């Protein structure tokens, strides 16, 4: 059974404009000065991502288990940053794997500053989370209509705490935003239309 969508009669250009506005609201406050600060937890995640990337590139897949928290997205994003900034990075010494000091020493010996990698990881995180929120906006429009969704997501995009959190290479923002996407797509499946891709997205995000 298919339920009629809220505001489905609005011109398509309204929807396109709304998506563009939300995208700009998400990106503009988050893309600047990504190299101007370091949070304590980011140091740990940079080190974990290094171990994750090194283990993955060596085929040591058991070694990619670097933390018990649900931070696999953060590990992959950090690994992508290493792939971009330092593709041949590798750690085989256990002392280097377990010590941030030894890890940073390896970077500096190869002429790479940790902030260079962290800045790329933050940029990738901002782009990933913006894509997640845009997809969440799509489901919100299906459920609640264009105007309520637009106002809600502009408030969400401009919230100082969420803005700061989603600029960091950390697990909290991906976990929160993906849970929101999972809930919206799951609700859309049951209340709007039984599209199984929505159920797949809900499961993957959750």
Helix percent band: 55-70%
Rg, Å, rounded: 20 Å
Overall strand count = 0
Q: Mean pLDDT, nearest integer?
A: 89
Whole-number tally of structural domains = 1
Could you describe the 3D structure shown?
70% of the residues lie in helices and 0% in strands. It is an all-alpha fold and 206 residues long. The protein has one domain (12-21, 35-205). The chain starts with 11 loop residues before the first helix and ends with a helix.
Could you give a quick summary of the protein structure above?
The protein has helices at 12-27, 40-58, 72-85, 94-98, 100-109, 114-144, 146-158, 160-165, 172-191, 196-205. It is mainly alpha-helical and 206 residues long.
Question: How is this fold's topology laid out?
Answer:
Blueprint: H1 12-27, H2 40-58, H3 72-85, H4 94-98, H5 100-109, H6 114-144, H7 146-158, H8 160-165, H9 172-191, H10 196-205
């Amino acid at each position: 059974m298919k339920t009629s969508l809220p505001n489905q009669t609005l011109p398509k250009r309204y929807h396109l404009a709304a998506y563009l506005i939300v995208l700009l609201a998400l990106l503009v406050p988050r893309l600047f000065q990504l190299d101007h600060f370091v949070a304590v937890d980011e140091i740990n995640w940079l080190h974990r991502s290094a171990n994750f990337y090194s283990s993955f590139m060596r085929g040591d897949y058991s070694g990619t288990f670097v933390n018990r928290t649900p931070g696999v997205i953060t590990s992959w994003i950090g690994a992508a940053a290493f792939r971009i900034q330092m593709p041949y990075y590798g750690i085989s010494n256990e002392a280097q794997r377990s010590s941030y000091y030894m890890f940073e020493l390896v970077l500096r010996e190869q002429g790479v500053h940790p902030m260079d990698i962290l800045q790329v990881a933050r940029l990738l995180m901002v782009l990933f989370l913006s894509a997640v929120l845009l997809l969440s906006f799509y489901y919100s429009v299906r459920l609640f209509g264009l105007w309520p969704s637009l106002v809600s997501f502009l408030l969400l995009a401009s919230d100082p705490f969420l803005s700061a959190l989603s600029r960091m290479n950390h697990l909290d923002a991906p976990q929160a935003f993906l849970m929101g996407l999972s809930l919206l797509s799951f609700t859309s499946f049951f209340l709007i239309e039984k599209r199984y891709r929505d159920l797949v997205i809900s499961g993957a995000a959750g």
